């Protein structure tokens, strides 16, 4: 097909993985930022519980997370049935793969964002308040810009994690070519069939290149922002 | 616009119970560290919640715990300058200055200071395109003052704005605060533990000690009687309003005149006719029953004893009325007894020219009469 020698199926897997990872990352930005801010700035009963819940996907076997998602968001699951009524089906669809990737990447995203939010000088935020800025304006004009390197790092980490997510995805949405067969699932499939080694190696190299690329981009962005803030 | 403050708060072993009113002009909150000054400022700015309290500015109530009223910081219109500049590091100086103005733009009716005037007053025109990280401490603090002024505040709080600066930077910013006090028409509450700053700037002094008001009143009386709390009682000294008469270029001294007579002080770079407020530390004043001869001290003022106050450590504070201007002198009890000083005794007050601290001499707070 081209110089890389990829088959159409392999291209489909790559394109699907990029789409799934992008949607998972973009959709978790808002909730991730909110949870990171709450954990960084608020003291309330149940904070440890929320912290634990967010980190759970990091330590649970991915297959357990996938199975829990299947129980909750499958066609007969609590939320799955509700969503099905409004026409949203997640199980065995690429959107379900995006949900699985978002959940698995969430702890990494929240952790990076929370650290950078905690590093923002609360005294500068207080100064902004005395100048007449309401709390949400302080967040948008002071907190968020100052935490931006960490926010971006969190997003890139979540994206890279989504590109590599396998266990939860395959458990929740299976391994359907063209629908839920992401890059790792495609590699796994190729390693299971005779003569698939060459394809598996090609996709593995692409996987490594994409992950390295994402990390380099995040490093570059963080450095540029850091220089703008006078820290670099 | 008058300000009335009544705050109560308990945090562990620390108790704060402070009530004072501040007339227009600059009110100094004076006390050693731990006396509760910064807590009072935080409660006034809306950055901390007192257990109990009331805060009114003009006819508006900003805090009344009895009624459950707590106006949030961003709606108080109280500009605050902190010990550190606290500029937004990701914004340029110009954007920092505009920050508060943007949120107060709905209040165009409110007569605020114009940016050009503030930038000129503070001398920060050349810094506008710089980033805060590249500024020196003094430059940063000037931008912070400008930023607070441009948010159209009704009250300016300054929490030890000079504490983090060296003597040179302090000398650069003190005259700016004097000009603000006299020109901006915004009441200022200024926190400090430095007698020279307070002596130079304050119209009113509120002395805090251990979370309570130890003394409050016009600056002149508080300083003269040394009501600055046990720790600073030794720094009592009179404030005299005088006018620059001329320079003695040969001796590098400046000649001042006022009600009490003439004083020679270390060189001041002020034009003749400028009103000056001079802090005369009580420990540097000698009293003599006769007009002394053959004495090195340059300044001799004639007057009579007004009152005597006992101080700690066997000393006394003697107030001397020099034609309406009152000086104070700190003497030992033995000296007072030997000279037979009592109210009405005619005396000469003697001060060495070098006793005057140029840092404690600034422009007069108001027009002076001679």
Describe the structure.
The complex is a heterodimer of chains A (232) and B (370). Chain A is mainly α. Chain A has helices at 8-41, 47-59, 62-73, 78-85, 94-118, 122-130, 135-164, 167-173, 183-192, 197-228. Chain A is globular. Chain B folds into 2 domains: 3-231, P-loop containing nucleotide triphosphate hydrolases (Rossmann fold); 237-369, OB fold (Dihydrolipoamide Acetyltransferase, E2P), CATH 2.40.50.100. Chain B is built from 8 helices and 21 strands. By secondary structure, chain B is an alpha+beta fold. Chain B is globular and about 65 Å long. Chain B starts with a strand and ends in a 7-residue tail after the last strand. Helices cover 21% and strands 36% of the residues of chain B. In chain B, a hairpin with a 4-residue loop joins β17 and β18. In chain B, α2 runs parallel beside α4 (137-149) and α3 packs antiparallel against α4. The interface between A and B is medium-sized, with 22 and 31 residues.
- Strand count, sense and closure of the main sheet of chain A? none
Percent strand of chain B: 35-45%
Number of helices of chain B: 8
Biggest sheet of chain B, strands in spatial order? 7-8-9-3-10-11
Name the CATH superfamily assignment of the largest domain in chain B: P-loop containing nucleotide triphosphate hydrolases
- DSSP, total strands of chain B: 21
Main β-sheet description of chain B: 6 strands, mixed
Termini gap of chain B: 29 Å
The helix-and-strand class of chain B reads alpha+beta
Structural class of chain A: mainly alpha
CATH architecture of the largest domain in chain B: 3-Layer(aba) Sandwich
Shape of chain A: globular
H-E order of chain A: HHHHHHHHHH
């Amino acid at each position: 097909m081209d110089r890389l020698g990829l088959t159409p199926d392999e291209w489909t897997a790559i394109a699907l993985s990029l789409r799934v990872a992008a949607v998972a990352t973009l959709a978790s930005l808002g909730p991730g930022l909110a949870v990171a801010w709450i954990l960084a700035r608020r003291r309330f009963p149940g904070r440890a519980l929320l912290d634990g819940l967010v980190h759970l996907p990091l330590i649970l076997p991915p297959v357990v997370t996938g199975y829990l998602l299947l129980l909750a968001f499958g066609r007969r699951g609590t939320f799955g049935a509700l969503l099905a009524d409004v026409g949203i089906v997640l199980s065995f669809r690429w959107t379900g793969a995006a949900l699985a990737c978002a959940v698995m990447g969430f702890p990494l995203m929240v952790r990076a964002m929370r650290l950078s939010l905690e590093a923002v000088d609360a005294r500068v935020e207080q100064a902004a308040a005395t100048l007449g800025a309401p709390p949400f304006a302080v967040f948008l004009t002071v907190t968020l810009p100052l935490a931006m390197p960490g926010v971006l790092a969190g997003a890139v980490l979540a994206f890279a994690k989504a590109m590599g997510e396998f266990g939860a995805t395959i458990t929740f949405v299976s391994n359907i070519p063209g629908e839920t067969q992401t890059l790792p699932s495609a590699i796994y499939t190729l390693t299971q069939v005779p003569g698939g080694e060459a394809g598996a190696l090609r996709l593995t190299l692409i996987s490594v290149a994409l992950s390295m690329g994402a990390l380099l981009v995040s490093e570059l962005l963080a450095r540029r922002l850091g220089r703008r803030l006078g820290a670099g | 616009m008058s300000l009335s403050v009544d705050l109560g708060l308990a945090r562990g072993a620390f108790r704060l119970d402070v009530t004072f009113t501040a007339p227009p002009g600059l009110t100094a909150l004076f006390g050693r560290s731990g006396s509760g000054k910064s807590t009072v400022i935080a409660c006034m700015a809306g950055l901390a919640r007192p257990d109990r309290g009331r805060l009114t500015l003009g006819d508006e109530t900003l805090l009344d715990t009895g009624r459950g009223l707590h106006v949030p910081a961003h709606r108080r219109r109280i500009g605050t300058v902190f010990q550190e500049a606290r500029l937004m590091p990701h914004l340029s100086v110009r954007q920092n200055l505009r920050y508060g103005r943007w949120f107060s733009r709905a209040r165009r009716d409110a007569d605020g200071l114009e940016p050009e005037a503030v930038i000129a007053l503070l001398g920060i025109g050349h810094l506008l395109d710089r980033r805060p990280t590249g500024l020196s401490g003094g430059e940063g603090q000037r931008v912070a003052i400008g930023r607070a002024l441009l948010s159209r505040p009704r009250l300016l709080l300054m929490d030890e704005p000079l504490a983090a600066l060296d003597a040179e930077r302090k000398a650069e910013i003190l005259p700016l605060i004097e000009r603000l006090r006299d020109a901006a028409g915004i009441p200022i509450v200024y926190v400090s533990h430095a007698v020279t700053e307070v002596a130079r700037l304050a119209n009113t002094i509120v002395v805090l000690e251990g979370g309570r008001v130890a003394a409050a009143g016009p600056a002149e009386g508080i300083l003269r009687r040394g009501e600055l709390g046990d720790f600073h009682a030794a720094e009592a000294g009179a404030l005299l309003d005088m006018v620059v008469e001329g320079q003695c270029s040969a001796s590098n001294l400046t000649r001042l005149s006022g009600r009490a007579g003439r004083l020679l002080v270390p060189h001041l770079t002020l034009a003749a006719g400028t009103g000056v407020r001079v802090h005369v530390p009580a420990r540097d004043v000698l009293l003599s029953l006769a007009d002394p001869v053959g004495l090195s001290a340059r300044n001799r003022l004639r007057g009579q004893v007004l009152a005597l106050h006992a101080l700690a450590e066997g000393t006394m504070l003697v107030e001397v009325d020099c034609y309406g201007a009152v000086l104070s002198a700190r003497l030992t009890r033995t000296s007072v007894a030997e000279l037979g000083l009592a109210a009405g005794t005619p005396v000469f007050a003697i001060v060495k020219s070098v006793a005057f601290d140029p840092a404690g001499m600034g422009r007069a707070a108001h027009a002076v009469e001679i």
